[in-house]
Amino acid sequence: MANWAHVFKIFALLVAALLVFLAAQRMLRPADYGKLGNYRAGALNDLFAQAPRHEGPASAPSAMKTSWACTKKTSTAVNCEDCHGPAHLHVKFFLGEGGDEIAEASAVLPREYTLEGCLFCHRKLAARPRNFPQVDPEEHFAFLHVNDATTPCIECHGPHEPLFLLTRVSEARIHPIIQECRQCHATPVEGDHRAVAGHPVIFECRDCHRKVVEDFAGREHAFLRCTACHLFYQENESAGRIFKNGNQRFCLLCHEKKDWKNGEGWPQIVPANHPEGVEMDRDDPTLCLACHLENIHGEEAMERGAP
Amino acid sequence: MPSPEELVKLEWGYIVDTTRCIGCGSCVRACKLENDVPDRYFRTWVERYEIGRDETVHVDSPNGALESFKSDRLADASAVKAFFVPKLCNHCRNSACTQVCPVGASFHSPDGVVLIDKQRCMGCGYCVQACPYACRYIDHAKGTADKCTLCYHRIHRGLPPACVQACPRQARLYGNLADPDSPIRRVLHERRYYLLKPDMGTNPKCYYLGLDLEVK
Question: Fewer beta carbons under 10 A from the terminal one: N or C of chain A?
Fold first, then answer.
């Protein structure tokens, strides 16, 4: 028997260690560990307890949606909080659900109307899909004779209605896709593609609208591409929507006099002091073209379905 | 919070449509603000791939695209192909991060989300090393690992994850993979998709549309 004593001692030690381990495990392991899996079930509730900060469009009162959401804008998918910041305090405070804990100052939505804020989405980048509206700020400012390179976009473009289109996107004319040389050519192309044997037929405005394009070439706006006013919004690989513009706000994007423009290039006006005594109301539906058509197109071009 | 019986009927999945992403960083900013993600760390970020004419691949993500991208790295004429790829936790079915956790702090929820129990995590960093997608980081202020939770606090309140809600181009979609009629299931049924690093055998639940082979 004496020969087995050391075995019993080792066995007793092992049993004692196991009991200590089991006791420690029972004491240290959370009570809900293993209820749902190999983890603490209460962790799910801990994560769920976090309060959402981005409320989403559903939280906006209906009156706000009606007055602020522009039905004509192309950027209808942009969430309010993308520009204005998280609205959790804002909604709770103004619905009176926050009690005294939320100060009004912290409930007012921060605004991101800086130049950079807009360029986050709209800066021209090669990696951006070509059918997404993009702008090279340097090129754009040079074109508009802007002196101050930090001028925010909202000086001209209303953030809730950036382009003041005459028609909704869904109501604008379906138009075949407008091809651009750079889609195939890596470097700028000179000359006429029609002179190149076997060159694919591409849609240029004059291919279908020869009469209008030839007439336009002799008018004051001839330095512009057609799509400067007839904005094209590509919807899929073969077609898009094209707009006819000419409403006041759209024309004023270029022609409104501003302190940060150098006054060169083309006529710039102060709407409230329109030349020749014509008062302009920004909400007046009268088109600039009613008086200034001769600077752009002939009379026949205004007819629906004109070539 | 749904009951465990209801949770097992769900399997959350995620779709990223790279053909729609404009690299604006709205998702990154929304995630940061929603989840108090510390500076220089990201639960989601946007990478830009520019493939030159000599087939060299340039990848960058300045500050996770928190403030979008300032300019093209390659001159426009020399870039053959360029696109954005948003990244986030892939919520893998066979996740390496949960397998290596020594204290059971990384786990799969019954509804298929890979989560971290902050009470148990001791910040050893094994999971950070194990994740083949570099989706985890150590939050030094809290001393724990951290990652995308698919906005677990939002999806069970009927709200989309902050990044999905913030995306102005609907390049991100989430939904219940267990429901054959869910929008996410329909997209996966109709569109061709790709998984990141499929050879790793992690079986991710984050599906990418329009992805290129250069993307790792």
Answer: N
Q: Does A31 touch chain B (CB under 8 A)?
A: no
How many beta carbons lie within 10 A of that of residue B187, not counting itself?
16
Chain B interface includes A166 (CB < 8 A): no
Q: Looking at CA atoms only, how far is residue B133 from chain A in angstroms?
A: 22
Using CA atoms, how far residue A202 sits from A80, A184, A232, A233, in Å, is 40, 11, 16, 18
- Whether A120 sits inside 8 A of B108 (CB atoms) is no
Q: Which position has the token pair 């707009």?
A: A243
Q: Give the domains, in start order, of chain B with CATH numbers.
A: 4-92+148-209 (3.30.70.20), 96-146 (3.30.70.20)
Give per-residue pLDDT as tens, B65-99. Answer: 999 999 888 765 556 789 999 999 999 999 999 99
* Interchain contact, A82 vs B30, CB within 8 Å: yes
Tell me whether 0.90 is exceeded by the ipTM: yes
Lookup: tokens for A284: 């007046």
